[in-house]
Amino acid sequence: MSIPPFVSIIVPCYNEETTIRHLLDSVLAQTYPRAQMELIISDGMSTDRTQDVIAMFQREHVTLAVRVVENSTRTIPSGLNQAIRESRGEIIARLDAHSMPFPEYVERLRRRPRIK
Predict the structure, then answer these.
(1) Cα torsion at 113, 7, 27, 102 (round to 10°)?
(2) In a 3-state reduction of DSSP, which class is residue 9?
(3) What pLDDT, in 10s, does the model give residues 3-53?
(4) Strand, coil or helix: what is 115?
(5) What is the pTM of this model?
(6) CA angle 10, 20, 49 (to 5 degrees)
Protein backbone atom coordinates (compact mmCIF):
# COMPACT_ATOMS: atom_id res chain seq x y z
CA MET A 1 0.00 0.00 0.00
CA SER A 2 1.46 3.33 -1.03
CA ILE A 3 1.48 6.49 1.04
CA PRO A 4 -1.01 9.06 -0.24
CA PRO A 5 0.35 12.41 -1.41
CA PHE A 6 0.83 15.15 1.17
CA VAL A 7 -1.94 17.78 1.02
CA SER A 8 -1.64 21.40 2.15
CA ILE A 9 -4.95 23.09 2.89
CA ILE A 10 -4.54 26.85 2.64
CA VAL A 11 -6.97 29.35 4.12
CA PRO A 12 -6.89 33.15 4.03
CA CYS A 13 -8.71 34.70 6.96
CA TYR A 14 -9.44 37.95 8.75
CA ASN A 15 -11.62 38.36 11.83
CA GLU A 16 -13.23 34.93 11.62
CA GLU A 17 -13.59 34.36 15.38
CA THR A 18 -17.19 33.16 15.04
CA THR A 19 -16.61 30.75 12.14
CA ILE A 20 -12.99 29.53 12.18
CA ARG A 21 -13.69 26.76 14.69
CA HIS A 22 -16.24 25.25 12.28
CA LEU A 23 -13.57 25.11 9.59
CA LEU A 24 -11.00 23.63 11.98
CA ASP A 25 -13.42 20.93 13.13
CA SER A 26 -14.32 20.15 9.50
CA VAL A 27 -10.66 19.73 8.57
CA LEU A 28 -10.12 17.52 11.63
CA ALA A 29 -13.05 15.34 10.48
CA GLN A 30 -11.52 14.69 7.04
CA THR A 31 -11.25 11.04 6.01
CA TYR A 32 -7.79 11.70 4.58
CA PRO A 33 -4.88 10.59 6.83
CA ARG A 34 -3.93 13.43 9.19
CA ALA A 35 -0.27 12.55 8.89
CA GLN A 36 -0.52 13.45 5.19
CA MET A 37 -2.25 16.82 5.68
CA GLU A 38 -1.40 20.25 6.97
CA LEU A 39 -3.57 23.32 7.42
CA ILE A 40 -1.98 26.71 6.79
CA ILE A 41 -4.03 29.73 7.81
CA SER A 42 -2.87 33.06 6.43
CA ASP A 43 -4.23 35.58 8.91
CA GLY A 44 -4.62 39.19 7.77
CA MET A 45 -3.76 40.49 11.25
CA SER A 46 -7.17 39.79 12.78
CA THR A 47 -8.27 42.16 15.50
CA ASP A 48 -10.77 39.79 17.11
CA ARG A 49 -10.06 36.46 18.85
CA THR A 50 -9.45 34.46 15.64
CA GLN A 51 -5.86 33.63 16.57
CA ASP A 52 -6.90 32.64 20.12
CA VAL A 53 -9.49 30.21 18.75
CA ILE A 54 -6.87 28.69 16.44
CA ALA A 55 -4.32 28.41 19.27
CA MET A 56 -6.86 26.65 21.49
CA PHE A 57 -7.65 24.20 18.70
CA GLN A 58 -3.93 23.52 18.16
CA ARG A 59 -3.52 22.65 21.86
CA GLU A 60 -6.56 20.35 21.77
CA HIS A 61 -5.67 18.56 18.51
CA VAL A 62 -1.93 18.09 18.17
CA THR A 63 -2.39 15.30 15.60
CA LEU A 64 -3.36 17.83 12.93
CA ALA A 65 -0.57 20.11 11.72
CA VAL A 66 -1.94 23.66 11.84
CA ARG A 67 0.21 26.72 11.17
CA VAL A 68 -0.68 30.38 11.11
CA VAL A 69 1.28 32.70 8.86
CA GLU A 70 1.05 36.47 8.95
CA ASN A 71 -0.52 38.25 6.01
CA SER A 72 0.53 41.82 6.75
CA THR A 73 -0.66 43.00 3.33
CA ARG A 74 -4.17 41.94 4.35
CA THR A 75 -5.31 40.95 0.87
CA ILE A 76 -6.59 37.53 -0.13
CA PRO A 77 -4.13 37.06 -3.04
CA SER A 78 -1.12 37.89 -0.88
CA GLY A 79 -2.47 35.66 1.88
CA LEU A 80 -2.86 32.76 -0.50
CA ASN A 81 0.63 33.30 -1.92
CA GLN A 82 2.12 33.41 1.59
CA ALA A 83 0.35 30.17 2.53
CA ILE A 84 1.52 28.46 -0.67
CA ARG A 85 5.12 29.54 0.00
CA GLU A 86 4.88 27.98 3.47
CA SER A 87 3.21 24.78 2.25
CA ARG A 88 4.84 21.37 1.92
CA GLY A 89 2.09 19.63 0.01
CA GLU A 90 2.18 17.95 -3.35
CA ILE A 91 -1.49 18.94 -3.56
CA ILE A 92 -2.78 22.38 -2.55
CA ALA A 93 -6.42 22.71 -1.47
CA ARG A 94 -7.88 26.16 -0.92
CA LEU A 95 -10.70 26.75 1.54
CA ASP A 96 -12.34 29.82 3.06
CA ALA A 97 -12.24 30.50 6.80
CA HIS A 98 -16.02 30.23 7.04
CA SER A 99 -16.34 27.03 5.00
CA MET A 100 -17.25 23.59 6.32
CA PRO A 101 -16.06 21.00 3.78
CA PHE A 102 -17.70 17.60 3.87
CA PRO A 103 -15.53 14.84 5.42
CA GLU A 104 -14.46 13.33 2.07
CA TYR A 105 -13.40 16.66 0.53
CA VAL A 106 -9.64 16.12 0.63
CA GLU A 107 -9.94 12.44 -0.27
CA ARG A 108 -11.96 13.33 -3.36
CA LEU A 109 -9.45 16.01 -4.38
CA ARG A 110 -6.74 13.38 -4.41
CA ARG A 111 -8.70 11.22 -6.84
CA ARG A 112 -9.26 14.00 -9.37
CA PRO A 113 -7.14 13.80 -12.52
CA ARG A 114 -4.14 16.10 -12.44
CA ILE A 115 -3.77 18.87 -15.00
CA LYS A 116 -0.58 18.50 -16.99
Answers:
(1) 0
(2) strand
(3) 899 999 999 999 999 999 999 999 999 999 999 999 999 999 999 999 999
(4) coil
(5) 0.91
(6) 115
